[in-house]
Amino acid sequence: MANLLDLPVEIFQMITHELVSSAVGGVNRSAKGRQIEGVWRLRYVCRTFAAEIERNVFSQQPKAVYYNNYYFERLVLKSLPRYIMQVKRIPGNINEGFRARLQRMTSYILQELDIKDEKQRADIIDKFYVSLRKIVNEYGLSHALWCDCGPSCLFVTQTQDSTELSVQDRLCTSLMVGAHDVLAGVLPEVSGAEKDRLFRELPFDIARILGDMESIKVILRHLETRPLLERTILTNYTGMFCIQGIINNILASDSGTTAQTLLDFHRKSLCSPARHDYNNWVHNAVHDRTTKYLHNLRAVLDFHPEGRTRVLRETMLTICARGSSEDVQEALKRVEDVDKGTVLNAPIFIAVRSGRVAAVQGCIQAGASVDLAVRSNIPTLHKDTITPLDVAMNRNDDGVADVLIKAGATIPHISQWPGTRRVYKVLRKAVSERTKVKLPDLRKFQHMSLAERKDIQY
Ligand SMILES: [Zn+2]
Predict the structure, then answer these.
(1) 3-class DSSP state for residue 50?
(2) What residues contact residue 270 under an 8 Å CB cut-off, 6+ apart?
(3) Residues sharing a CB contact under 8 Å with residue 37, sequence separation 6 or more, in sequence order
């Protein structure tokens, strides 16, 4: 059999052209165009084939082939840098106004960075398009690349003919390629009123999406130089550098030191956060399945809004409801007496009411007493004081009751037990283990009078 590469190139060209044409033809017929995926996979046959298929798909088709066609769009957006390099300037192949905007952006950054080396230039351009794909949603990007709106297209920007780049475009470009010095140079020009249909992500989010924490720090350093009023306006909920948004996102998803940097900036340069803002930080900093972000929670707990140094009930409620046992322990390190409080605010009662075993375990690990007795708020129990186990029994929470018992909680006499199945089972098993006495099963227990129950001795 002849080697594939011995065949004349023209044959490859003819075959690929036919293949791609039939897939494109299929676009109109079936309005699906899925065949292109099969054709695209043929690139693995050999390099010549791959190059020919790419050339056919990327530079020989009118833009109508891509627009609103999921399969074609996906191929292009996945290899955006190569598509842009190959798409020819045949009128009708791409939205020219948008292509010009992108080119102005890349020329700008190459000039600012003053890069002469060809390989480095190519890398920067590559980074620019990879980032573009990440920060602009699919709908916006495919509209911008292939729409038919002409010069009035909202994604192209108003200054289509001018060679001047808008502040917004310069800001985004420097963020997209991670050019920190260029970014620092553009920031003083940002008024905060810049809006753009294409770049809907705000600067902090662009940096976060691209995993570029240094850009976040550059922006913070810039904000520190602004007068307080301007800084406050720029960082509020509707501001271009919304600080709450980025703090919450970073607390929830970044295991580095950026959260600490953001909180330090907040403490030093902004007014104390509102109570619900602070509570949102706590909410985002706790993670029930990992301790990877524990230092983020630590940073939040050590941030004392309005000078308050104690851990608030609200904070404990959130940590118990969502956090890991380690999260709970971290909070309790900052509580002077873990057994101080009422049924509503003593940590172990908050944990028991959260219904989460991890929260209760966290309290026990932190040294909370499992037999802490506080004034009752459950009238039906007819008791002056109640313990965490009483609350768990009342809630029919067998999981939490089991943890408390294993940690040595005193079990009340059987006459005080509820007749609910799950928790009764746990209590009965625990007593039989502790005393070797066999207590009646639930059916029997339910048919006993209170006096009979009180008579049971063990
Ligand atoms: Zn358009």
Answers:
(1) helix
(2) 231, 232, 235, 243
(3) 71, 75
Q: How far is the CA of 151 from the centre of ligand 1 (A)?
A: 8
Residues 284-339 have pLDDT tens digits of: 999 999 999 999 999 999 998 877 778 889 999 999 999 999 999 999 999 999 99
Give the SS3 label for residue 204: helix
Query: Which helix (H) or strand (E) segment is 375 a member of?
Result: strand 374-375
Fill in the DSSP letter of residue 311.
Answer: P
**Across the strands, what pairs with 374?**
386
The Cα 351–Cα 385 span in angstroms is: 18
Contact by Cβ (8 Å): 361, 325: yes
Amino acid 271 reads C
> Which residue(s) pair with 385 in the sheet?
375
Compute, in angstroms, the gap from residue 96 CA to the centroid of ligand 1. Answer: 11
Cα distances from 233 to residues 193, 224, 243, 291, in angstroms, run: 11, 13, 11, 35
Cβ–Cβ < 8 Å for 59, 93: yes
- The span from the CA of 10 to the CA of 48, in Å, is 11
Which residue type does 118 have?
Answer: E
Q: Where are the alpha helices (DSSP H) in 381-420?
A: 388-394, 398-406
CA of 102 relative to ligand 1 center, distance in Å: 15
Say how far apart CA 310 and CA 400 lie, in whole Å: 27
pLDDT at 19: 82
CB neighbours of residue 406 within 10 Å: 12
pLDDT tens, 32-64?
A: 577 888 888 888 888 888 888 888 888 888 888
For residue 215, the CA-to-ligand 1 centroid distance in Å is 30
**Structure tokens, 67:** 């627009």
355, 321 Cβ separation under 8 angstroms:
no
Tokens of 234: 């720029």
Q: How far is the CA of 135 from the centre of ligand 1 (A)?
A: 18
Q: What's the CA gap between 6 and 151, in Å, rounded?
A: 48
**Secondary element (H or E) of residue 208:** helix 203-209
Q: Quick one: which of 163, 175, 160 has its CA closest to 109?
A: 175
Nearest alpha carbon to residue 429 among 415, 448, 442, 416: 442
- Separation of CA 94 and ligand 1 centre (Å): 11
The CB-side HSE value for 103 (13 A sphere, CA atoms) comes to 15
